[in-house]
Amino acid sequence: MEYANYEALTPETLSTRLGSLPAVTKHLGTDPSGWQVREVGDGNLNLVFIVQSDQGSVIVKQALPYVRLVGDSWPMPLYRAFYEYHALTRQAARDPGTVPEIYYFDADQALIVMEFLSPHVILRNKLIAGEKVKGLGAFCGKFCARTAFRGSELSLKSADKKADVGLFSGNVEIPAITEGLVFTDPYFEAELNNHTPGLEPVINELRNNIELKQIAQQMLTKFASNTQTMVHGDLHSGSIMATDSEIRVIDPEFAQYAPMGFDIGMLTANYLMAFFSQPAHRGSDLDSYQDWILSVITDCWASFEAEFRSLWDSERTGMLYPKTLFEDQGHSSGAACDGVLAEIWRDALRFCGIEMHRRCLSLAHNADFETIEDTAVRAPLEARNLQMGAELVLKSDTLKDAKALVALARTYNARNIL
Ligand code: SR1
Ligand code: MG
Predict the structure, then answer these.
(1) Does residue 263's CB lie within 6 angstroms of at least one atom of ligand 1?
(2) Ligand 1 in reach of 76 Cβ (< 6 A)
(3) Residue to substitute in 42, 173, 177 for testing ligand 1 pocket (most ligand atoms within 8 angstroms of CB)
(4) Is the CB of 69 under 6 A from ligand 1?
(5) Whole-angstrom distance, CA of residue 196 vs CA of residue 368
(6) The domain 121-413 is classified under which CATH number: 3.30.428.10, 3.90.1200.10, 2.40.480.10, 2.60.120.560?
(7) Reduced to 3 states, what is the DSSP secondary structure of residue 48?
(8) By CB neighbour count within 10 A (0-12 exposed, 13-18 middle, 19+ buried), where does 2 fall?
(9) CA 363 / ligand 1 centre spacing (Å)
(10) Is 55 in the pocket of ligand 1 (CB under 6 A)?
(11) pLDDT in tens, 312-353
(12) For domain 14-115, is the CATH number 3.30.200.20?
């Protein structure tokens, strides 16, 4: 794609430029002069517009040719919209009803018109505000299991899966962001890094731990070379929108084929960071809200495992662990499934620990901690998060299950580190 005609939309030009598209007028009506357009993008990369008329609303998301968070000194290919579009279509097929409906895609303008989710809000804001979402853990676990299983050669025909790996392998610069910012930058003084003052003793300890860096690089190797399934690639609480009981996953432009444990590991990290940040956000309801966040983590893993096992029994039609080798021989494949889940669990814990580091040490921190204005309050909470992250990376073999994981989180939450 050349993008010769690409032009970034503005609130002033959007109605004229999209006003005659049937896919859009179907939702907003045919009189664009009455449309209200607001640019609401608060992510790190793109333009996002809410377009409303008296007949309905849509979201228009358009890629910019650079990283919005940094500016045009960091160019970023427009083709990421193409991958986001393809990721959304695959997620919609693999776990129907969990992602916004796409109304229109324009590859040359790097834009997607999609369903406006309302009254959904970004989950991270709900977690900061102390709001609960019914069924959150179960939803997330099922989403991770279904997309992991159904995007892999446990389920897909090999030729289809390999063709898809080929398609997504064109998405180079976006994974490179993760490869640098997530796996590498936290562990040395990289140019774009920043951290809360006061954390230096904890950071020095991490950066001087050679084993920690070695395992982080092992996980980077796995992330970059293991094409087990199509992952969302950036699954955190900012990529989930929810009401009190309705949940959707958004923003899969970081999609790539990668290890099955990646999404659920990153998501678990973001729940743990929400948990560790709570003392600065809550009052008398602190304990019960922190308990609820930990229950989201255990629910998520329970639902992931149950769904994965169910798909293993009912949809294992790919070339991996075929029934011809097990059930058809009168042999149980239960231990093989246990083995696959054990590897996902260990990988996820390590990805989780690394994500806990990057959100406090490299570029693109999360609002859970960043909205704590008093750095003297923020630093000790981040210190707990950083040290637990290191334990997850270094000792993933010793943590048996999600119950043990949340018990460990409680011990770090009680520590005075700085
Ligand atoms: C430069 S992009 C920084 C971060 O924003 C995205 O949401 C991803 O998390 C990425 O790592
Ligand atoms: Mg995003």
Answers:
(1) no
(2) no
(3) 177
(4) yes
(5) 13
(6) 3.90.1200.10
(7) strand
(8) exposed
(9) 8
(10) no
(11) 999 999 999 999 999 999 999 999 999 999 999 999 999 999
(12) yes
